[in-house]
Design goal:
The protein has a two-stranded antiparallel ribbon. It has a single domain, classed as Ammonium transporter AmtB like domains (Ammonium transporter fold, Orthogonal Bundle), CATH 1.10.3430.10. 53% of the residues are buried. Helix 9 packs parallel to helix 16. The chain is mainly alpha-helical and 486 residues long.
Length: 486
Amino acid sequence: MRLRSLRTAWVVAGMLLLGVPGLAAAAGDGPSPTDIAVNSVWVVLGAVLVLFMQAGFAMLEIGLSRMKNAGAVAGKIIINLSIAVLMFWATGFALAFGDGDGFLGQMGWFMNATDAAGDTNSLGLNSFMNAIGAYNIPVEAVFFFQVVFVAVSLAIVFGTMLDRTKFIGYVIFGVVFTGLIYPIVAHWTWGGGWLFQDGFLDFAGSSIVHLQGALAALMGTIILGPRIGKFRNGKAQPIPGHSIPLAMLGVIILWVGWMGFNAGSTLGAVGLNFADIAVNTNLAAAAGVIGATVASLVIFRTLDVSQMGNGAIAGLVAVTAPCAFVDPWAAVVIGLVAGLLVPPLVVLVDRMRIDDPIGCLPVHGISGIWGTLAVGLFATESRIGALPAEAGLFYGGSGHQLWVQFYGILATIGFTGACSLVVFLAIKYTIGLRVSEDEEAAGLDISEHGMYGYPEQFIEVPGAFPESTRHSAGLSSLTRPTTTPG
């Protein structure tokens, strides 16, 4: 009896403690310091998860590239992450989230923020946050969360351009994309711009992040051309990656990081059901794997592991826009359709003579379009809440929301596609976008960076193998290339 009374007392005390922040918020004019702290911790944690997605992209792209280019892919990932952070700090954040007009932001350059609350309001950051019911959080937390998003979009761009792109080409395009192109489109919705005012919904970036990345990737790979040997006698030749285990590790890392990507996009924790978004995200990913597995069996007559991984990412991309606006059953349908589309679209891309080593265009492009349109089909009135939008067509909507989603996609395609085309053409006809045939044949590790990512596989490294295995491994005939550092 005494034990039960003590247990009851602890429960009541705990409930009172949990209720204090809410009472304080209700008594004041805004969120309590505790609410702001909890929300800030959640947003920063979400940003860290999204930042870790760069490791997923690295493993995925390294695994699906050839061994002689593994180090170059790693270098490309780290330089692009750095460019994204610096350029978004300098100009991108202001263009995307600064106060301005419906097309772009016009203040907040170099994240000019000293007082968190005041600057959050002066930069116009509340236009989207308030609409979804989030509390104010420090502007630095918003910046950190958004900068890792632009880094993801940039990582997508270069997935199609592996094994043949000059390192300097990555750098120049990265500066323009993260500092100008991506932020303007982000402002249209997340910065309270014209698309947001029209009712366009993209909760975490199926179009803003993934479609933009895929559009730039398409322009880049068309201008770049295919890898040597990819197309022979009018037919696509498979160029398998060197490590499926690494690629699948990348997929799983991306899957985990997506919990921050989607659920963290609530931009707060207090009073917001981010767990519901995480569940929808996982359901779509799992359904995407099943869809791609079935489609792979039908089309290729085999269980293609790389397609299974792409199915997971396709499901994640597709559910990113509607994850907060749809019921769980709809998340399953959205992910399943995205997965089913991947294998046939991979074949179609090959038939169009476009060389896409990791399946970026179907996975991030078409799935991004499908997910954005899915909002106009499956969004429920209760989940949309106070946002200036309508329920989806399958929930009694008039079809207006589907139309808004459609022309939002067209606007993104037109702007990002055209801008990316101009930038890539400028790079091609000035400093050059593609390495020479000899450099491509040698591998970008050695031609661009002076050392192989897997040196023991290509050159003789003293002590790399026991003496008893040197001859059986064929290492005695290997010599160090003259281009390696001394």
